[in-house]
Design goal:
332 residues; alpha+beta; globular; protein serine/threonine kinase activity
Length: 332
């Protein structure tokens, strides 16, 4: 982790120019920045003095102890003249899974969806294998970002914590948090497994975790009973905007099976992320060529994403066709 001066960060963001603002939330603002040498990064600027800084400090602590190609890594830290810490993160230019699923006019195909599931699964596996295990506690599509090669990266570690026996209040996002996780002593990696299961259902259905117009509104209560019936009833939960092509049924069925197990109310029946990743990998290998020695499978997604990508950009500087590549990452 590098220590940057405030002057370096200010210059890189053009004095925090609003044209470079790429995100804003309860934590503060995020700006795109260009460091010397042309390296693009994201700068997380906290809210004005007086706000709670514990989440920011926690994110620095967690991210400084782990690094992976499956997460959005911490590049460095800077301090403002007032003493506030600023996080310099890897820059993810292609938005979030939330946007891809719910805002794109061209929804992702099933190969992209299982690639995302496998990428996030491997991110969580790496965290859970740490000593002590790291629990993210806020796995959801909004916290899955895409890098320049459209690889899914797990982001926002402000709620992440270590399973070291310390007393940490329960936290998470409504619709994704494990209903059984209500007390500090109940923190364990299975909390992430449950949230991952909800995210799998979003990938499968194309709907949000909670939709007022759906009965039941919570995707878990709506989809899991249908998946349990199997056959055509189970396939009814899949995103109607994207057909399940020949050869993909086995992958979609495996995603449904894994999701249902991740969402089990009985903690003892939930799989660990190692088992989840292995099952998704085996399903992928049945429809793709065998995984190469470095554990990566690269698949061109064609032109369907180009139009949406152009609309997301504030300025289009070229009309040349962009070939967008995505890949299913191997392990670390």
């Amino acid at each position: 982790m590098k220590n940057f001066t405030y002057e370096e960060v200010s210059a890189a963001t053009n004095d925090f120019d609003l044209d470079l603002l790429v995100g804003k939330g309860s934590h503060g603002s995020v700006y795109k920045a260009l460091l010397k040498g042309g390296v693009a990064v994201a700068v997380k600027q906290p809210k004005p003095a007086g706000a709670d800084r514990s989440k920011l400090d926690n994110e620095i602590d967690i991210l400084s102890s782990c690094r992976s190609k499956h997460i959005v890594n911490l590049v460095g830290v800077a301090r403002s003249p007032g003493g506030d810490k600023l996080l310099i993160m890897e820059y993810m230019p292609n938005g979030s899974l939330e946007e891809l699923l719910h805002s794109s006019p061209d929804p992702p195909d099933w190969r992209r969806r299982v690639a995302v599931a496998l990428g996030v699964g491997r991110a969580l596996l790496g965290l859970h294998l740490a000593s002590p295990p790291i629990v993210h506690r806020d796995v959801k599509p909004a916290n899955v970002l895409f890098d320049a090669r459209w690889r899914a990266r797990l982001a926002d570690f402000s709620l992440a914590t270590r399973c070291d026996g310390s007393c940490v209040p329960a936290a998470g996002t409504l619709g994704y948090i494990d209903p059984g996780y209500v007390r500090p002593g109940q923190l364990w990696p299975g909390v992430d497994v449950f949230s991952f299961g909800v995210m799998l259902l979003e990938l499968l259905t194309g709907g949000r975790a909670i939709e007022v117009g759906r009965d039941p509104a919570w995707v878990v209560e709506w989809a899991v009973p249908r998946i349990g019936k199997g056959g055509e009833t189970a396939l009814e939960v899949t995103d109607g905007r994207v057909g399940v092509g020949e050869g993909m049924e086995v992958v979609v069925e495996k995603m449904m099976e894994v999701a249902a197990r991740c969402l089990s109310k009985e903690w003892s029946r939930r799989p660990g992320m190692e088992e989840v990743a292995e099952e998704l990998e085996r399903a992928v290998e049945r429809v793709w060529r065998p995984v190469c020695d470095v554990g990566e499978v690269v698949q061109a997604v064609g032109r369907w994403m180009q139009g949406w990508r152009r609309r997301r950009q504030k300025r289009v500087t070229s009309t040349a066709t962009t070939k967008i590549i995505y890949e299913i990452d191997g392990g670390d």
